[in-house]
Amino acid sequence: MDPNLNLGDSIEKFDIKIKSKPKDGVILQLHHTVRGSNGESRRIRFSSAVFDDSQEKLACADNVGNIFILDFADLKFWKITNRGAFTALHFFPNKLETLIVANKSYNINLIDIESGAISLTLSGHSAPIKHLSFSNNKKNNLLTASAVEAILWELTNFTKYFTLNTYSGAQIQQIMFTPSGEYLVSCFQNDTIQVWRHDTMKSVKQIIPSELKHLKSIAFTMNGRAMAIAGLSTTLILFSMDTWKALLSLDLTKFNISGAQQVSFLPQVFDGGSNKILGVLSSDCIVYLINIESVKLVHVVRFESSGIRDFIVSPTGKYFLCILQLGEVNIYNTSFVLDLAKISKEKVTVPIKSMPHMVSKNDLHTKFEVEKRMRTCMDSVRLRRILMQYGEYPEKFRSVIWRSLLATPRNKVAYSNLIDKGIHPAFKNIEKQFTIHSSMTLKNLKRLLSCLAHWCPLFGVLKFLPGFVFPFVKVLQKDPLLLFECVATVLLNQCQLWFEYAPFPPLSILAIIENILAEHDQQLLDHFCDLGVTSQIYALKILETAFSEVLTCSEWLILWDHVISNEPSFIIMAVVSYNIIQKTALRRLTTYEELENFFHKQNPLDKKAFLKKTYSLLNETSEDIHPRRFIKSFTSLDKGLCYQQFSGYPKATICLKLARKEKKKNKSDGYTLTELTSKSQEQEIINRYKFRENESMHKCSGDDVEHFLTDRHRKKKQHESVQRKGDFVNKDVKADLIKSIMCPATVNLKKGRRHSERSCKKVEESDKAESISKNKKAIKNNQLEKAVEKLLIDSETSRS
To answer: pLDDT, tens digit, for every residue of 242-281?
Structure first.
């Protein structure tokens, strides 16, 4: 540990704003300017940078030793305390929030990017370290290299595993692991390339390209099957790692490139790891993007004010950046740049005289081409292969891919019929329950919830539903029809068995989750039991928010890419996986309140480990407790003029819930009418009291009450017949319904208002005074009955 480090210092984070539609593809520009004591501003140059796609982070170091961390997921950036100039950076692949840095003292430090604390220092180099590389098949193997030596470290015990020393004239230009981690490849100053097998560290191949002189850089495709070799000569070679032979020799003068300082492939979404776009940083400090399959120039990145000193691509190709000679950093979204290149190319080839006609025709042609390619690629097997390789679907095509995977029918007529019903009363004032700053988002949320409630009355009474659908609204609100059908399909499939005990918790699902957790991590389940934490805390809270409370925006999108691409039980396994991955943090919590709060906030998460564990649970859970035993296979919405009925809920309990909501609504309107769940129930009660109207005009005695009850038993068959025609919930609900009618009436009536209020007051006094005789109580009850009769009759008249 650094003795000068003040661990009490807190790192302040600041907001960053990324351009959503940049004209030149630059989504963010970085520059570090400080003001001196004399008032003059001084620009500090950035020297190195590295991406971490798994956490959507970027680390940039400047010449004086400041490290800036940019979090693209949370749109925050912060600075780590100055620790001297750095020569190389790399994120630790399987340790969250850990950055490996090489400083000018030839040491390697492991730094926590949240606190700036140094957890480990490795020493052993005799020259400035320029290269850091990790093996994909052995995460604890770190390769560090200077110009004169390379060291392979075993990080489980922090020892040197292998050391490579060079001699004068054969110094290391570049050294790295292949993407598979099977080989270690180095490019030397004497224009040779050496290949070692990683597991044995024995040399297996030496490549001496006769056409190339002054070798500078090598790069691998994402699948590791091809290697690009370039240098200060005008030739670039594409080399096969399978056959150990050259695949292509490219003359760079065709693109006015006199030599290459650096090469790097830009992975694309649908290229299957066989990358076609190669970025070349030329000797005149310009970046050329070349399609090596068609041998055509795609795009040129240059700046009038400054040359480009370094060119860095993120591992999945989502971003790339250019460090300028003036010290600034320009960060690009790769898809934006390639789209810009296509548009620019079309503009160049269109004749000026016929531009209006030709542009529309070309645009139409391009649209058909894109749609044709997308239909070809929309096969679920191909999409899943892409997902497993890249970890997520591209943001640009995510809505199209989700639509394909969920097989949404695009029922415009059926959706219009739901829209025409208007805003559902349950969600009319939803803005009072949630703070939503965007009026458009609020409008889309109301519309979606209303359509769901009109489709099925169940969705009008579920308290958790707005929180569940809100993240889908944020992602798909540009296409309301797709938004509704996606959410409806998810409710049909991923939410099976959620509503069988509604409005009570889904006991079957929670039992399944608890059984899976018991099989795979009994210790964690015991910890929950010791603290009295049930599955309603560690599972239901996550499900009801669709993971949106515990994951960042980018993490949520990636998870749902996988949820939608797999069987419906995948989301249940994801809940168990989240708990197991967070086991270390959860076991440190010792109170019920701490654990409850844990599942209501975002916590640091290794996305790759989380998804890997989810797939492991999906494949390794015993068949007798596996969710697929209880959950049906995927079912899409029917195509037609209406959507199929949603029936996965108990109607009795939902009617009870609706009755309670009706009671609350009536109270808010100034009424104390009973919990009427249907018109048939209301009609039956009105008929019952109409029957007694003629007999209750005189003062009622105790015998009269007894006669009324006897008469009601005599009419039992008649009531049962009416009950069969009506839509009753159950006997308990009906009893509760009749009982609630016997409460005092406080409705403002046009006639008999004062009489009703006096009757209510007398009834309340009679309930409190135990000394009042039975005759007086019967009289007051009779007066109450007449008031209720008038109230119900007036209510029925006003409704009709």
So the answer is: 898 999 999 999 998 989 999 999 988 777 778 899 999 9
Give the C-alpha separation, 40 to 37, whole Å.
7
Amino acid at 752: G
The rounded distance, in Å, linking the Cα atoms of 343 and 363 is 10
CA–CA distances in Å: residue 382 to residues 163, 238, 376, 387, 389: 42, 27, 9, 9, 11
Is residue 26 one of the residues assigned to a domain? Answer: no
**Nearest-angstrom CA–CA distance, 209 and 470:** 57
Query: Do residues 34 and 42 lie in contact, with contact meaning Cβ atoms separated by under 8 Å?
Result: yes
Tell me, yes or no, whether 297 lies in a domain: no
CA dist 102 → 151, 158, 706, 781 (Å): 13, 16, 95, 90
- Domain CATH code at residue 44: 2.130.10.10
* Residue 131, pLDDT score: 93
pLDDT tens for each residue of 192-220: 999 999 888 889 999 988 878 888 999 99
The verdict on residue 655 lying in a domain is: no
214 in the same domain as 113:
yes
Q: Phi, psi (5° rounding) for residue 785?
A: -60, -40
- Count of domains forming the chain: 5
One domain for residues 65 and 193: yes
Give the SS3 label for residue 381.
helix
CA 733 to chain centre: 41
**Which residue type does 94 have?**
N
Single out the residue of 47, 51, 42, 14 nearest to residue 331, CA to CA: 51
- Residue 383 domain boundaries: 359-390
* Angle at which helices 380-390 and 553-565 cross, to 10°: 140
- Residue given tokens 């048939």 in the structure block: 680
Q: Is residue 675 exposed (0-12), middle (13-18) or buried (19+ Cβ within 10 Å)?
A: buried
**Residue 584 domain-assigned (yes or no):** yes
DSSP per-residue codes, 324-362: ETTS-EEEEEHHHHHHHHHHHHHHHHS-STTHHHHHHHH
Answer yes or no: pTM beyond 0.90: no
Do 93 and 70 lie in one domain? The reply is yes
Closest residue by Cα to residue 385 from 273, 239, 217 = 273
Q: Domain check: are 326 and 403 in the same one?
A: no
